User: Fold this.
Amino acid sequence: MIYKEFEQIMSAPRMQRYLNSCNGDSRKAMMLYRINLRLSQELFTVISCFEIAFRNAIDKVYANSFGNNWLRDSVLLNGFFSGNNCRTTASIIKTKLNEISTDYAHQKLLTKMDFGFWRYLFAQPQFAAGGHILLRAFPAKPRSTPSIQYNHTFVFNQLKNLNDIRNRVAHHEPICFLNGQPIKSTIYARQHYGYILQLFQWMQIDESALLYGIDHVHTICNQIDAL
Assistant:
């Protein structure tokens, strides 16, 4: 496909950053666009694996303390999310419960919750409501130091980084540029990929074994750098 046809399909404004970052070389601009899509696919696969592992780790912690139906029970009268400080969280859970109605199953309710929901369980009100125990989901987390507090707020912020790149990929935004500028760079993708691997390690998950054969993030980043 010639560039003009490609640009007509994808739109000139969308392609302008790619063209600028490749110094006007339209062939390289199309190639960068396609490689960015491959990088997005790879990262989304890794993030999806993390999201499932992360959700299951949270489920295990709370099930051990509050029972196997903890998520449903958390919004019942005197449930730990029933207080005023967790109104939004409780509202989300109740909405999802209504969606599955009489077909309730704990695992089905778990899968209804998105990444943002699980992230906000580490926000101060939700973390406190859950009894300050949720960091048990990360048994290999480093000890805090005078300069870095590896507490629930630190985890919350790390999860925000993952949520941000997840949303960029889901909304078809490029992840191959430097801080939104028309400058080709894999710093953003590599940095956020590193956050994911770090959190896997904190959960005592062998990420290399888990992602074997489906993780080519560094390889594709290298292709972008060499373009």
